[in-house]
From TrEMBL:
The lineage of its organism: Bacteria, Bacillati, Actinomycetota, Actinomycetes, Propionibacteriales. InterPro entries: FAD-dep_OxRdtase, FAD/NAD-bd_sf. Keywords: Oxidoreductase. This is Glycine/D-amino acid oxidase-like deaminating enzyme. One of its GO terms (molecular function) is oxidoreductase activity. One of its GO terms (cellular component) is cytoplasm. Residues 2-309 form the FAD dependent oxidoreductase domain.
């Protein structure tokens, strides 16, 4: 297993739990890559495309994982979304349209509650590094070997073209199957094998702020930002501009004038060419399995369980059928 982000940690945990001999390798510490700068919203708000079924099951999959791994750092706050100047959209399962009076009950510090908002009570957010660490601890309990800060330099084949090892800065590690869950680095590791993985780094800025306690209760999604409270005195926001984000916070929430910027970091999200996950075995490189996607926080529990089933039990998961590499 190459990559100890959300997806790699989930696959390692689920595969080890299913009885596989798992070795997890990462160039850094678990969760130190793009995961640490993720907004980490469990969001099921995309209702079309190959990943829509996986997204719809996200809350259930997280509840299952919470039962298996007590102490998983998940906050079920619900999400509140609106767009000023637009009419209310059609809702999907798990959503409802609420009026201004209800919106201000959900978010009491709103200065001007919107005429309508989409309330999704089953959504929430996670501490991504904490979730990764808990899944890796669970994988270790089932016998997984974990090698942090060991960069993978290449994936090796035998004379028949089958994948048999990964080469690392500390020497080769043998394998019967190599799962590439290395985010945007997956393409570079696969290319020498003649496998083209259409994924590019997509920059996204995460702002961290000092804020008054209780400023925000839910995950708030507007045209200005995605924003949520992650500690009594901390909020995070996914947005484009520091100045515009601060202005929007001040104009949206009473007490927003006391918010102070702590940091702004740009993460390189792995973004497949069509925006959909790339998951599955690679015909031209037997023994190679790909697991790269955007929205890894939302999808990780589900895809980890399904990938483990395909690897350990030899099943073919119908929910992954639209995510195969050969669609390109």
């Amino acid at each position: 297993m190459v990559g100890a982000g959300m997806v790699g940690a989930s696959v390692a945990y689920h595969a080890a739990k299913a009885g596989a001999a798992v070795t997890l390798v990462d160039a850094g510490k678990p969760g130190s890559g793009v995961s640490v700068d993720s907004f980490a919203w469990i969001a099921a708000n995309i209702t079309s495309g190959p990943a829509s079924e996986l997204r719809a099951a996200a809350a259930d999959e997280y509840h299952r994982l919470e039962a298996e791994l007590p102490g998983l750092p998940v906050t079920w706050s619900g999400s509140l979304s609106w767009r000023t100047g637009e009419s209310a959209p059609e809702t999907v399962r798990g959503q409802q349209i609420v009026d201004a009076a209800t919106a201000v009950k959900l978010e009491p510090t709103l200065r001007q509650p919107p005429d309508w908002a989409v309330w999704a009570p089953d959504e929430g957010g996670v501490d991504p590094v904490g979730v990764i660490e808990r899944m890796i601890a669970g994988a270790r309990e089932y016998g997984a070997q974990v090698h942090p800060e060991v960069p993978v330099t290449a994936v090796g084949r035998d004379s028949d073209g089958r994948i048999v090892e990964v080469d690392t800065a500390s020497g080769p590690l043998s394998a019967t199957t190599v799962v590439l869950a290395a985010g945007a680095a997956t393409a570079a590791l696969a290319a020498p094998l003649g496998v083209q993985v259409p994924v590019e780094p997509s920059p996204a800025t995460l702002f961290r702020f000092r804020a008054p306690a209780g400023l925000i209760r839910t995950v708030v999604n507007t045209q200005d930002f995605d924003i949520r409270q992650v500690a009594p005195d901390r909020i995070i926001a996914a947005a484009d501009s520091q100045e515009r984000t601060l202005d929007a916070i001040k104009s949206t929430f009473r007490g927003g004038e006391h918010v102070e910027l702590l940091s702004a970091r740009i993460g390189a999200r792995p973004m497949p060419a069509d925006g959909e996950p790339i998951i599955g075995p690679v015909a031209e490189a037997p023994g190679l399995y790909l697991a790269v996607m955007h929205a890894a926080v939302t999808l990780a529990p589900a895809v980890g369980r399904m990938i483990a089933a395909e690897l350990v039990n030899g099943t073919t998961e119908p929910a992954l059928a639209g995510s195969r590499l050969d669609r390109f």
